[in-house]
Specification:
With 391 residues, this protein is α/β, with parallel strands linked by helices. Helix content is 42%, strand content 13%. The protein has one domain: Glycosidases (TIM Barrel), CATH 3.20.20. Strands 1, 2, 3, 4, 5, 6, 7, 8, 9 and 10 form a ten-stranded mixed beta sheet that branches. Helix 14 (321-340) links the parallel strand 8 (305-316) and strand 9 (344-349).
Amino acid sequence: MSCRILAGLTLILMFVRCQAKPEFAPTPTLPPSLGPTATLFPWISERGGQTFLKSRLGKCLFRSPLPVIYPATSGKLRELAEVNGVWVGTSVAANPLLRKNEYSTAVARDFNLIVPEVGLKFEIVHPEPDRYDFCQMDTILAFAEANGMRVRGHPLVWEQQLPPWVRELSLSQEQWKALLQDHVSRLVTRYRGEIEEWDVVNELFKEEGTLKETIWYENVGPEYIELALRWAHDADPNARLFINEFATENLNSKSNALYALAQDLLARGVPLHGIGFQMHLTESNPPNPAQVADNFRRFGELGLEVQITELDVRILKPVTPENLAHQAEIYQALMEVCLSAPNCDTFVMWGVSDRNSWINYVHEEWGSPLILDEAYAPKPAYWALVETLQP
């Protein structure tokens, strides 16, 4: 057999091995610059196969079994979360989950829910006008399935981490709507039945409580929030849809604006099921637990779920044992608020351990924000959560 034939057969076998389910979402009418590019295999393009030819063959050959860590390796926090019916989660990167290591072991050992850190962000999942790349998200889902975990979808619509091609577009309002609808619909449709809840719109308010003038606000209009929720609901009517926001844990102008928006959306029949409270906090200025509880209560009175979605509590360096003890009290108080609220059952940290936190790169004068240290060992905050979850 010639080398050329052998190489062709190898490519076909690799393609079949890597092929995931095809796209089902309808493709809107877009200007020529945004339409599908021609390929040597048109039938592949029709089924979304450009993704596989351009990206999967090179970096997404994860179809060999992912590490099955849980329940053989199980930590006290995950065990108690399961007993209490609480989802205790963390954000994750995809690549470290491909093999058994300290990172993947800690993820499966201590958490029963995971959220993609970047795997569903626009620049990762939709890097070119004619191409979607689901490699990272598929890896995360495969790991979750192997280890009995739930997955949250995050985010569908956000102003940041957009690829350059989006920012360079010059489109009509209807074309911008078509672009955003395609993005939302494709993601939700692809993972219909696998991802049960989505952060549909992420970080939409300024601190004083007015809407940010984001690329979506400016080009689609303020109705982009409602449209995104409706498109997500149409793509998966069974999914629970959230607005996710930071600096809204206390009662303040921003959380009041979020509450007013939720009221308005619900009054007009827009599908909204919950609010995500990010809670990127500092140990020196934690939120008032009573205000957090009041906040959760008033959203619950609207019939909405609330979730703690991106919690970390950073400490000003140098970190002392006293700082860590106070940090543990903050984690414990917030878990107590969630457990006492009938509409809260999800408590997610943003990062697996202090080694992996975004704080290390954005707030270098701060550190130690999470419940596992840089060696993936439990910190006082971890044991405070364990204590709170004890029957």
